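Our collaborator T.R. sent over the components below with a one-line note: 'Predict the complex.' Nothing else. No constraints on interfaces, no templates requested, no preferences about which chain binds where. So this is a plain run: every listed entity goes in together, and whatever single assembly comes back becomes the starting point for the next discussion.
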Amino acid sequence: MTIIPDQEILSRFDENPRDGMKLLFDKYYTSLVGYAGKFLGDRSRAEDVVQEFYIRLWNDGYLKRAPVRFLPSYLYAGVRNACCSARSRRDLLRAPVDIAGVEIPVEAFIEITDERVERVTVEIGRLPERTRLVVQGVMLRGQSYKEVAAELSISVNTVKFLLKEGVRRLREKFRGGAREILFLFFGKKRG
Amino acid sequence: MNIPEDILDIMLDTLSGAAGEEEHRRLREWLDASGSHRAGWQELCALWYSGSVGAGEAPGKAWEYILARHARGVRRRWILRGSVVASVALLLATFLLPRDVAERSPDLSSWLGKRVPGRVELVLADGSRVALDRPAERWEESVRVANDSAGVRYLASDEAETGERSPALHTLIVPRGGEYRATLSDGTVVELNSGTTLRFPARFGGETREAWLSGEAYFRVNGGGKPFTVHANRVTVTVTGTGFNVAAYPDDRATGVALATGSVEVRVGDRVERLSPGYRVEVDNETLETRVEKVDVAAIAAWKDGVLRFDDIPLEELMRRLERWYDVPFDFRGERLERSLFSGGFRRYEPLERVLHVLGEVNDAVFRVENDTIVISNK
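Returned assembly:
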């Protein structure tokens, strides 16, 4: 599978909005739904919010104003806002629910570049088969542990174990490249 | 960053949506404990979401829904206009301003916004100064000098007599916060980093090619026989055809020459060091002591590709680099920070607010503006 560069998606959108939107959809939809799910705690609501978000991007043409270099940050920040307003809308109707969750740092999205997406994708493809299937299910397609367990006929604990194995291997791959990760500072004491 | 086993479990549960409130609470506690914990979490999140972006085609039903809603939306867009405008403004606001920075230091943002960047200038042989911010072309001693906002090219015509008269020396001045590229008349390409001055002849005559550098530059010297010499601080670098980086800021402790390809000779006083590719020589600007070590030349010269990288440098040096790259003065207070070493990197055109934001988050430091200087202190 090839990763279509953000630059190309945006210029395609200028020529033919429908084609551009489809590319943007294929590239980011699943990931944005996974992200929205963390705010809303509910996958189908997350899908609704992200679909609405895409429609607004398209109908107002404000994808035209998106900064090419920071497209991922722009999209995730937009979905985050959409989730916040969706939650407050719901809270008017129901008792407020405290879903504090854990913050995903904004800087993490600045690090998502086409080059990096491509490298991670290649490395996932190199994982041992069962590990790869679990990583693809949970990380890429946003399936729950249970769904993946049922699909592969293994236990939920095995899914968790294999996911951790996969993530550990990926982190090792990118460790030499811990320095490749831009926009990170590590302070340490002078020894 | 080594993440403890039990915390990694919670992180993965959180990212896959399986974590409960008790797990969230424990993870938040762990993250609050230190900046390096937060850096580790950020790294894992970046990995996770980079992976999920590569997922490929999403379920078709969602796309059909979007298509249908789009068709309806176009017809009644005028009704929605007000709310759409508001959401666009909100989206842009969050995008442009990291929330915490905006809350913590409104004065920092507005102060940075008011600063005017300096211009790249060329000083001609007669001392006249030309700004190079607009595309232009001129002739200097049968050499065509063409520039745009990114670089200047010297093109010597074949008939240019080589010769008796000593050639006119030009000086290129790149201000702090700027960067520029010069293609010299022999085809040598020089990338100039912020706060750098390069002096060179408009055309190369005679038996040698010579240039004088203050600041940092990456040279891709065009081969072709005649040796090429760079004078930098009290160091002389001589090459034939090769790529190398010279860091020679007068206010740095040392002058460094790092070699990517080919070979160079570095002369310090009457001593000569011959470098192989992948090595750097560092010359102490005061004592002239030299030290040769194996280095990652690509990382050292990453600045020319728009990436700023550093490896275990003290805060004082990091601030000096930020001063050059962004043309803002720094001052720091806080003993704990003075004892820290920093590694990392960021893209050159990252707004300074963001850089400071991350730097502050990871190291528990705060930034504020005082007397036209950014003051850093412990949180």
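Summary for T.R.: The longest strand of chain A covers residues 184-189.
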